[in-house]
Every structure is written in structure tokens, then in C-alpha cells.
Amino acid sequence: MWWYKVTSRGKDCSEICTQYHSNKSDTILAQRAQQCISDKEIWIKVQKNGLEGYVSNYFLDASN
Fold it and tell me: Under a CB-based contact definition with an 8 Å cutoff, are residues 37 and 59 in contact?
């Protein structure tokens, strides 16, 4: 699961990404989800050496 900025845009992006992951053949959702990632609205929890934090999915996305 991801974390999003606590804004109306962040909540919308979370819903868009959730819908996209349920229907990856929808090109409109794909474009909208990619825009959310480009806008750094979606964050992913990461763990390393017992530490936990969040990083923008933008920096984890291989297409950037």
C-alpha cells in the first residue's frame, strides 16, 4: 500500500492508483496514475537495516 500527501489531490491520486492497479489495461487510468507519480503525490514505505521511512514513488519508478 502507499501513502499520499494529505490533500484533496493526494487522496484523488491514491484512489486513481488503486483503480489502476485493479485494471492495468485502462490507458486513461494509466496516464492519470503516471501524472500522480510525476507530481510526487504517491509515496512508498521502505525498510532498510531495521529502519523504516517513505520515498516518493517518482524516485522508484524505472521510467524516470
Answer: no
Rounded CA-CA distance 19/5 in Å is 18
C-alpha cell belonging to residue 28: 486513461
Global pTM? 0.75
**Per residue in 10-59, pLDDT tens?**
889 999 999 998 999 999 999 999 999 999 998 888 899 999 999 998 99
The amino acid present at 59, given as its one-letter code, is F
| Residues 6 or more apart in contact with residue 48 via CB below 8 angstroms | none
Q: In what order do the strands lie in the sheet with 42-48?
A: 2-4, 42-48, 51-56
2 three-class SS:
strand
